[in-house]
Amino acid sequence: MTIGGLDTTETAGVRLTSDNGDTLDVGVGRGDGTVFVPNYRIGSNALTRLTVTPYSRFALPPGFDGSNTGQTVTIATNGIGAPVAPALSLSSNPNDDRTATITAQGAARSGGDGSRIRYGIVSDGTPCTVSTDGGSATFTVPVGQTYRYRLCAESWYDGQSFGRVETTADVTAFPTTRAPRGYTFTVAPTPIVGTGRAEWRISDAPVSAAETPPDGTDVRFGGYPTDVFDRDPGITAWYQWGSWKSDVATVTPRAGSAPYQVQATWGVDVCEGGQPLQVSGASTVGPSVVSFDTSGARYLDDQGQVLAPTGDGTVPIGAVTVENLRVTVDWSASATSQGWNLQRATASLSSTCTPNNPPPAPDPNP
Hints:
By secondary structure, the protein is mainly β. The chain is built from no helices and 28 strands. Strand 18 (about 235-240) and strand 19 (about 245) form a beta hairpin.
């Protein structure tokens, strides 16, 4: 504060008072027509009254009823401090290139009437410098992370800063909710052969040749692993990070793969002494892909002895077991399954038989 126009021959000092602030006496030296007051606590950052009263160098003569103060001057002014209630709002908008645009907006209440607030917004850990247009900022960042930004705000008046305040805020850069692209499954070409059946399964998780999961996210699958055979397994894929998840995509079969998990079964239907041996097989596309070789069949009696073959394809009387039957599943034998690139399955099979032994001869000596 600068106070001028003083009569330095008569004035010893000036007294500053305000409604909410201090009372301050400032001395005036002889020849000092102007007094500079570097600091005064006025007690309000809103406009308030400040009264300046000069007082005389000389005491009143005895018996003189008067005042040793001069004419007061009252002005409206206020103090300036740091901005109040700083706030930083952040929003994230995903881009198609797996980045996100962070939009930051700063705000604060005035630290004093007549002052202007200057702002700065930076990534936390970076020096924050205010400017006249620093109240908003944008940042482009990789998705899949949480970022912290810092707002600084200063009260400026007449080219000088009168106080500074800072605050931080966090924002998570979520990816776009667009569904995953290009995920396919493959039915493994190698069969899993068990007793009386073979399966061609989706043994590996679906993959995408088009993209990888966005940073920080994982790909999740619904319907995989699956025990669904002979029809679309209904596998789905999405990206997930914590509670966030993308839209869901349908996983399709890879080119050159079977369209779904397939299976084949086989068995001996009839093995009865004196009757033709009957075998059968079934598969996803029907029985045409399942074939049998019974030429090496071995029949055993109840003593484990090998019975001589009949030569006409019938089961020997007395057989309780048949073994060494061969079965082959060849998907190329059906036009439906050609191009599925599935390997053949081969297996041996055996079965119990009904011996159909003739009844024992009657006892001649009952």
